[in-house]
């Protein structure tokens, strides 16, 4: 496996041409993809604001955090920008099991010249810092508080990193970049949607130069995303009704009528399920209705009626799928 230590961006690409966004910005890019570059998703629809924030991260070494409700395209946005710049990426899910040793490194026993020797193996942070890599902390608000302090120092621009056990100070590669995604903005599971989300330390939040949010998109943008994701779906009228339905659940959630809501990811699943079952109600039941609690189903049925002008079959409301 060739190392990417010496790779450098040698191109400068126009944001207008590459992302179809009205901007004069140019952004450095690598001439070829390596194994760490995510695959390009040709169907991806870039949101102008979020894309510009991510571009600023790559071009001007800003630390960028994207916050927003689930399934809105936070993680994939960063990857798809990186894919177009051929910028190597490492996406790290900050789940509760990630330990300081995973991040910083640990002594490990290796075989060298038939001898067992103990050697320090760098964790993901020092490894990335030395390389032209975009390190993405996914689910930033799921990280345990003690772990988050490891990250604090490198959030500063020239953020050197001290490997205490090794008496080493690592200066970041000039093309090292850092991004994060999170569902909350540090208040923990306040709205009940994000069980497991931690409160974030504000000194830490303060170190992110750009915080942008990606909540739900304008109706037409969302329709375009579904069309791009599920090109077999050609019924515009149905598609518009589906997106309106999702919008109603979000409004219902916002005013406290529903405890769950449909994300763009749910709408994509619904459209995909429709390709399988060829029935909008069955597809809907599998994609969303079965995730709702029984006492909220009548309200969801009312939304459905409003958008599709047909009743959600009564039997779907209480019985299990097989007993229909
Ligand atoms: N702008 C878009 N264009 C095309 N597909 C999109 C877009 N936004 C989201 N998607 C699709 O929606 C799904 C959810 O996206 P993603 O996983 O990036 O969401 P997320 O915001 O990171 O969600 P979570 O908060 O749950 O981690 C993916 O399948 C992705 O491909
Ligand atoms: Mg995500």
TrEMBL record:
<feature type="domain" description="ATPase dynein-related AAA">
    <location>
        <begin position="64"/>
        <end position="188"/>
    </location>
</feature>
<feature type="domain" description="CbbQ/NirQ/NorQ C-terminal">
    <location>
        <begin position="234"/>
        <end position="297"/>
    </location>
</feature>
<keyword id="KW-0067">ATP-binding</keyword>
<dbReference type="GO" id="GO:0005524">
    <property type="term" value="F:ATP binding"/>
</dbReference>
<dbReference type="GO" id="GO:0016887">
    <property type="term" value="F:ATP hydrolysis activity"/>
</dbReference>
<dbReference type="InterPro" id="IPR013615">
    <property type="entry name" value="CbbQ_C"/>
</dbReference>
<keyword id="KW-0547">Nucleotide-binding</keyword>
<dbReference type="Pfam" id="PF07728">
    <property type="entry name" value="AAA_5"/>
</dbReference>
<dbReference type="Pfam" id="PF12556">
    <property type="entry name" value="CobS_N"/>
</dbReference>
<dbReference type="GO" id="GO:0000027">
    <property type="term" value="P:ribosomal large subunit assembly"/>
</dbReference>
<comment type="similarity">
    <text>Belongs to the CbbQ/NirQ/NorQ/GpvN family.</text>
</comment>
<dbReference type="Pfam" id="PF08406">
    <property type="entry name" value="CbbQ_C"/>
</dbReference>
<protein>
    <submittedName>
        <fullName>Cobaltochelatase CobS subunit</fullName>
    </submittedName>
</protein>
<dbReference type="GO" id="GO:0030687">
    <property type="term" value="C:preribosome, large subunit precursor"/>
</dbReference>
<dbReference type="InterPro" id="IPR027417">
    <property type="entry name" value="P-loop_NTPase"/>
</dbReference>
<dbReference type="InterPro" id="IPR011704">
    <property type="entry name" value="ATPase_dyneun-rel_AAA"/>
</dbReference>
<dbReference type="InterPro" id="IPR025865">
    <property type="entry name" value="CobS_N_dom"/>
</dbReference>
<feature type="domain" description="Cobaltochelatase subunit CobS N-terminal">
    <location>
        <begin position="9"/>
        <end position="37"/>
    </location>
</feature>
């Amino acid at each position: 496996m060739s190392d990417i230590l010496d790779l450098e961006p040698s191109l400068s690409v126009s944001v207008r041409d590459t992302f179809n966004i009205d901007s004069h910005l140019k952004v450095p890019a690598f001439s070829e993809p390596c194994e760490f570059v995510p695959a390009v998703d040709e169907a991806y629809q870039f949101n102008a604001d979020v894309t510009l924030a991510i571009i600023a991260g790559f071009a001007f070494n800003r630390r960028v955090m994207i916050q927003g409700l689930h399934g809105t395209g936070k993680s994939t946005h960063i990857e798809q920008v990186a894919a177009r710049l051929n910028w190597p990426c490492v996406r790290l899910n900050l789940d509760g099991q990630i330990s300081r040793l995973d991040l910083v490194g640990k002594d490990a026993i290796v075989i060298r010249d038939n001898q067992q020797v103990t050697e320090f193996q760098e964790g993901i942070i020092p490894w990335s810092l030395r390389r032209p890599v975009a390190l993405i902390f996914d689910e930033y608000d799921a990280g345990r508080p003690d772990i988050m302090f490891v990250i604090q120092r490198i959030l500063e621009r020239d953020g050197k990193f001290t490997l205490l056990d090794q008496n080493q100070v690592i200066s970041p590669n000039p093309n090292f970049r850092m991004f994060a995604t999170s569902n909350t903005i540090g208040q923990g599971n306040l709205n009940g949607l994000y069980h497991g989300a931690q409160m974030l330390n504000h000194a830490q939040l303060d170190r992110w130069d750009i915080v942008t949010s990606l909540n739900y998109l304008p109706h037409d943008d969302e329709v375009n995303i579904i069309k791009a994701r599920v090109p077999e779906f050609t019924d515009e009228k149905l598609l518009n009704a589906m997106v309106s339905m999702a919008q109603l659940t979000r409004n219902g959630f916002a005013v406290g009528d529903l405890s769950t809501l449909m994300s763009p990811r749910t709408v994509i699943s619904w459209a995909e399920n429709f390709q399988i079952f060829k029935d909008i109600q069955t597809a809907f039941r599998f994609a969303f209705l079965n995730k709702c609690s029984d006492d909220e189903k009548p309200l969801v049925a009312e939304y459905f009626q409003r958008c599709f002008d047909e009743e959600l079959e009564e039997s779907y409301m209480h019985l299990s799928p097989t007993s229909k």
